[in-house]
Specification:
Blueprint (H helix, E strand, L loop, with lengths): L1 E14 L2 E6 L2 E7 L6 H13 L3 E2 L5 E3 L7 E6 L21 H15 L5 E4 L7 E15 L5
Length: 149
């Protein structure tokens, strides 16, 4: 499981020219799953997302989590995070889960993160989405559950 996390002042997702969801201060999370992702991968990524101390405290140091600042989270599915561009000029997505394999894992992730005491919003799985954001910092962090150590 991979996630690209951006600290934002605001973010929104539009589907078919309609605003589907939006958040204010918080995290925009692009999430990719692969067919062999497990509960352990879900637990690891969720824990990291909600506990990463990437918001500034009163001294200007990154010392607060999204929970600490009462932020919101917008989660967007993005299989292209598993693009392999090492050979040729066209990315290979062979490591990304096919929609039929990835959607149940994605849905399980969403169900579980919704139990956290944070406002969580999402895009729509497998939809063509326009995502807008104001990156605060900018701060961008990449997580990969395969790289646990």
């Amino acid at each position: 499981m991979r996630a690209v996390i951006q600290r934002v002042s605001e973010a929104s997702v539009t589907i078919a020219s309609e605003t589907f969801n939006k958040i204010n201060k918080g995290l925009l999370v692009f999430l990719a799953v692969k067919p062999d992702d497990t509960q352990e991968d879900i637990d690891y990524i969720i824990s990291k997302i909600i506990n990463l101390r990437i918001f500034e405290d009163q001294n200007g140091k990154m010392n607060l989590s999204v929970k600490d600042v009462y932020g919101e989270i917008l989660i967007i599915s993005q299989f292209t995070l598993y693009a392999d561009c090492r050979k040729g000029r066209r990315p290979s997505f062979i490591k990304a889960g096919k929609p039929s394999e990835a959607e149940p894992i994605y849905n399980k992730f969403i169900e579980q993160i919704l139990t956290e005491p944070i406002t969580i919003k999402t895009g729509q799985f497998q939809a063509a989405m326009d995502v807008a954001l104001i990156n605060d910092g900018p701060v961008t962090v990449i997580l990969d559950s395969e790289k646990l150590i």
